[in-house]
């Protein structure tokens, strides 16, 4: 996984990381890490002391069409809905939203506090 992918993972996880670290009184540490990432410090280096589970920043999500038990063998999904992407192309976020489905990351880039770019899936 490269740093662009880790930025996307951090951005997606930021709302629950804020909630979790605020409960531990460590919100200032997260703020420092986010500022470091925004200043182009590698994500793993910037977040090293935050005790974030490894799978949050290092393990990609499921590849579309490969979810267990989700497809009939021999068929192929067709694109539908919208794809939500990083507003600046700074990270690799590309979350597909099915019509009527929940907005990925609330429709916002949590790192840069901007709306995600919406394209047809």
Q: How many strand units?
A: 5
Tell me what portion of residues adopts beta-strand conformation. 5-15%
The low-confidence runs, each spanning 5 or more residues with pLDDT under 50, are 60-73
Structural class: alpha+beta
Element pattern in H and E = HHHHEEEEE
Please state the CA-atom Rg, rounded to the nearest Å: 16 Å
Shape: globular
**What's the end-to-end separation, in Å?**
23 Å
The average pLDDT is: 81
Largest sheet: 3 strands, antiparallel
Number of helices: 4
Strand order of the largest sheet: 2-1-5
Instruction: Tell me which oligomeric state these chains represent.
Output: single chain
* Percent of residues in helices: 25-40%
Q: How would you characterize the overall build of this protein?
A:
- The protein has 121 residues and is α+β, with helices and mostly antiparallel strands.
- The protein is 35% helix and 13% strand.
- The strands form 2 sheets. Strands 2-1-5 form a 3-stranded antiparallel sheet, with no helix packed on it. A two-stranded antiparallel sheet has the order 3-4.
- Strand 3 and strand 4 (114-115) form a beta hairpin.
- Helix 1 (3-23) runs antiparallel to helix 2 (27-38).
- The protein is globular.
- It starts with a helix and ends with a strand.
- Residues 60-73 have low confidence and may be disordered.
